[in-house]
Amino acid sequence: MPTNLSSSESPAASLGDDAHVGRRPSADRIALSAVAAVAALVAVPTIGARFLYDDTTIIRDNLTLRGWSALAHAWGNPYWPAHGADVSGLYRPLHVTLLATLWNLGGGAPIVFHVYAIGLYVLVAALVWRLLRRAVGGPAAAVAALWFATQPLHVETFASAANTSELLVVAFTVGIAFAILRGSTAEANGDPTWWDALPIALLAGAAMLSKESGLLSLPIGALTAWGWHSRGPGISFRLNDRRWLGSGAVVIACLVLRTAVLGATASRVTTTAPGLDVLTVSGRVEAMMSLWPRIAGMLVWPASLSPYYGPTVLPAHRALLAALGGLMLLALAIGALAAARRGERRLLVALGWMVLSYLPASNLFAATGQLVSDRTLLGATVGVALALGVLVDRLPRRASVTAIALVALLAVRNGAESIHYAKDWTSHRRLWQRLVDSSPLEYRGYQLLGIDARGRGDTTRALALLSRAFAMEPRDRTGRFEYGQILYATGRNAQAAEVLAPLLRDGDVRREASFVAMYLDAVGRSRGATGVIAAGTPLLRGEAAPTAALYVGAAEEQLGRIADADSVYALGLRASPGDAVLLGRRAQLERARGAH
């Protein structure tokens, strides 16, 4: 494959300041050790935590991780444990395989997962330093990597093992760039062989099978290899290069595998985040672009971070802020392209990391399950770190020293904030209180605190919190269920029945026998036998027939209508012929009739 490099300049030399690396190995070892140590320091508060947030579903309660056969089963099942078709449209078998390996090695101990997450975060921080060091001087690379290692936005990626898929994608993306760069030596001697293409293809596939955003790992890695160098024009690509043919084949194979397992290329039902579900396509784009100034602020000066950002995060003056966000991106793109035309491609690479890595979670092309989240900005922070390294490296010596000191101070501030935030990720109560403190107008924090209080047996506090959450957002199904459940548990049966009734419009809910039983019991305790008959009779014609028949039949018996009770039990047995409880009730009726 042709290259733009002169004969006197090897690809390796043109893509990094490796001469300095060779002359000062001890300084680079010290810098790398410092970056790794700092990354471990900010993450270590989470090491003794229990399973929190998504870890409870993805790891703690996920039976598909149990046993070594899980390493094979992970490739034939969706990401979220579910019965039937997966509602989320997520497929991450490599990530799940790693989690299953950890479960079976450690017997399900949380500390094993936290050690893994911290180790993976340290590895990613080290990779970012190595990437920086290829194209900027040692001091600039060190301070930019330290900024990255202390970024509070990263806490979500290592505090929850379920979120380590973000770290995997970034690690594989950097690996793709390195694999392309290593192959450029062979490229100078002719076309790359299939063996040169294999590492790139495997890394691209690994990224895709770790998280959906991994689909863009290959273009980000290629962009990095093309432009991340300190001097010289870099390398060029041909579309028929074996590296792209092989990687393209692997990407297509991963998409086919995903479709075969999920039964579709995307989710079969909406997973749109609350707040976006009521907007048109143009309204959604405007709303998400109006968040760009806030996201820029989160990247530069992270504050008031939260494990969840709900609809209250959307600003009031969306059109104005969307225009500002668009102009901000346009200005960055124009500046980076202008610099690239002058031979400075590094800023364009940094912008590419920011934009492309955030694109899958941006809600611009399709609505996702979150408005914005800390963890989905991990790749964008790589781009900011690259830009910081370049800007510090380009400054005159005196100004560079000042810039290094300022970035170092920012890293110290970020490190303190990261450690504080990491401590909040050690218990649900602390984490949900953080959510309430950072977003007092958001219902989700009160809801989650209420669920936690109910789990600890504090029903008085749970009732107050769940009541507040329900009043703030009555459309939330989880909140309605939890509030109805605590009303029932505290003897407020009339209110419980009223709150729970709308949920029965959903067929999946009607299939839940325990839910139908709780609802009809609440009706019976508040409105008596006639109320049960009125509420339960419509349920005899659907998924809830066996459970409804039990309660309606008992109500008919209570009113002395034995024949009607027998008919109701028969309806229930028609839907579930082997139901032992219904069979027992009907037999009891027959014995009572015989006695008379």
**Beta-strand percentage?**
under 5%
N-to-C series of helices and strands: HHHHHHHHHHHHHHHHHHHHHHHHHHHHH
Number of self-contained structural domains: 2
Structural class: mainly alpha
Approximate helicity band: 55-70%
Written account of the structure:
This protein folds into two domains: 301 residues, no CATH class; 165 residues, Tetratricopeptide repeat domain (Serine Threonine Protein Phosphatase 5, Tetratricopeptide repeat), CATH 1.25.40.10. The protein has 29 helices and no strands. The longest helix has 28 residues. The N and C termini lie far apart (97 Å). The N terminus is likely disordered.
Secondary structure blueprint with pairings:
Elements: H1 11-14, H2 18-23, H3 25-43, H4 54-60, H5 70-73, H6 93-106, H7 110-133, H8 138-149, H9 155-159, H10 164-188, H11 194-208, H12 217-227, H13 242-262, H14 281-289, H15 292-300, H16 318-341, H17 346-358, H18 378-394, H19 397-424, H20 428-438, H21 443-455, H22 459-472, H23 477-489, H24 493-500, H25 507-510, H26 513-536, H27 545-558, H28 562-575, H29 580-595
